[in-house]
Structure formats: C-alpha cells, structure tokens
Specification:
The complex is a heterodimer of chains A (114) and B (109).
Chain A lengths: L3 E4 L2 E4 L5 E7 L5 E7 L6 E7 L2 E4 L7 E4 L5 E6 L8 E8 L9 E2 L3 E5 L1
Parallel strand pairs in A: 2-11
Antiparallel strand pairs in A: 1-3, 3-8, 4-5, 4-9, 5-6, 7-8, 9-10, 9-11
Chain B lengths: L2 E3 L3 E5 L4 E8 L6 E6 L6 E6 L3 E5 L2 E6 L4 E6 L8 E8 L5 E3 L3 E6 L1
Parallel strand pairs in B: 2-11
Antiparallel strand pairs in B: 1-3, 3-8, 4-5, 4-9, 6-7, 7-8, 9-10, 9-11
Classes of the chains: A mainly beta (114), B mainly beta (109).
C-alpha cells in the first residue's frame, strides 16, 4: 500500500547527542513536511520541501536541520537535542505545495531525551 | 495573529451524537480540514470543507460557515474506537496549515 513510513517509531537519545529521524513515502508526492508535536498541542511545522526546494519556518531553531536526497526520502537531523526537544515528530506529504491538497501523515517518531 | 479555537476535551456516551466546534481567525482562507488522532499516533484525514454547508461522510459530517469563521465536526452513533483527539486546521492565504490544539473526545460505555 502507498504510504508514509517513519523510522524508528521510538527513539531515545542523550542530551546533546545528535540524532536523525527518517521518513520515506511511496505516494510520489512532491512535498514533504516535518512537524513537531508536544502532548496536547497542535502540530508545529518545522520545515518543508517542495521537490528539492527547502522552506524553513522562521521560528524553527538552528538545531534542527533537514535533508531530502531524493523524492522518496526525507531526514530530520537534531544536532544537539535538549530536554525541550522531546516530542512526537511527524512527517507528512502532499502532492503539491501552495494548494488545497490533503497532507498525509506517517505514524510519527516519539523522541525521548535523557 | 492567526488563531484556531476548539474545546480542550469533551465526553460523550457510546451510541450518542457529539458535535465538536472550531472557530478560526486567519489571514485568508483556503479551506478547513478535520483530522482524527489516536493517542500516540499520527493524524488521519477526515474531511475538507471550502464551501459553506454540511458535508456528510458516513457517521461523520463536517459543517462550515465562512462568514462566521466557524466549523463543526458531527459524530453520530459513537463507538468506543472514536475516542481520540480531533484537530481542526485551516489553510490560510499562503496555503499554510494553521492547526488547532485538538479536542480530546472521551467515549464512555
């Protein structure tokens, strides 16, 4: 089935130790998004790619970086995780940017920072 | 600023009907989405409204009034599996999704 896949589902890291979360999609969508969601809060958009064009939200900390080596894969790198970065990280895709296309989400990666 | 308001939590009984309201103030409007999110899982798409009126999809219906900046999600014949958070999200003039914090729906037998 066409879908959005995130690995791992649960990630534990040490304070300050770099961590990478991965997302892949078989929908062949042009746009991929990374959201951060803390408990009982709205998802917060960190950045998105339209094809290879990277779009960073103004308030996304420099600690968060992203890579999209090809259409199918997108990575979220947290260079020096702090305790405040513990959250669910959601990857989503849509066919086009700047449109009403629905965003489809992966299952998320829950990050714990010790 | 942009703002989406929804109740934090609601409780309903299995088999009953519940209406979850959402009001919004955004810079422009290109449609409103409802997503369902079970605890610890990703949001899943429920509905999209861009024109005024009611859209029905099985047990779930979504209503929009653009002039009032208001939407609701109506769930009928509630089942225990409907226990989840329901998120309202609006596409603004830049086609950015502005999210509400979600309404946690608790279903009791």
């Amino acid at each position: 089935d066409a879908m959005v896949i995130q690995n791992p589902r649960y990630q534990v890291t040490q304070f300050g130790k770099p961590v990478t979360l991965s997302c892949s999609q078989t929908l062949n969508h042009n746009v991929m998004y990374w959201y951060q969601q803390k408990s009982s809060q709205a998802p917060k958009l960190l950045f998105h790619y339209y094809d290879k064009d990277f779009n960073n939200e103004a308030d996304t900390p420099d600690n968060f970086q992203s890579r999209r080596p090809n259409t199918s894969f997108c990575f979220l790198d947290i260079r020096s995780p702090g305790l405040g970065d513990a959250a669910m990280y959601l990857c989503a895709t849509s066919r086009q940017s700047g449109s009403t296309d629905t965003q489809y989400f992966g299952p998320g990666t829950r990050l714990t920072v010790l | 600023g942009q703002n989406i308001d929804q109740p934090t939590e609601m409780t309903a009984t299995e088999g009953a009907i519940v209406q979850i309201n959402c009001t919004y103030q955004t810079s422009g409007f290109n449609g409103l989405f409802w997503y369902q999110q079970h605890a610890g899982e990703a949001p899943t798409f429920l509905s999209y409204n861009v024109l005024d009126g009611l859209e029905e999809k099985g047990r779930f219906s979504s209503f929009l009034s653009r002039s009032k900046g208001y939407s609701y999600l109506l769930l009928k014949e509630l089942q225990m599996k409907d226990s989840a958070s329901y998120l309202c999200a609006v596409l603004d003039s830049n086609y950015q999704l502005i999210w509400g914090a979600g309404t946690k729906l608790i279903i009791k037998p």
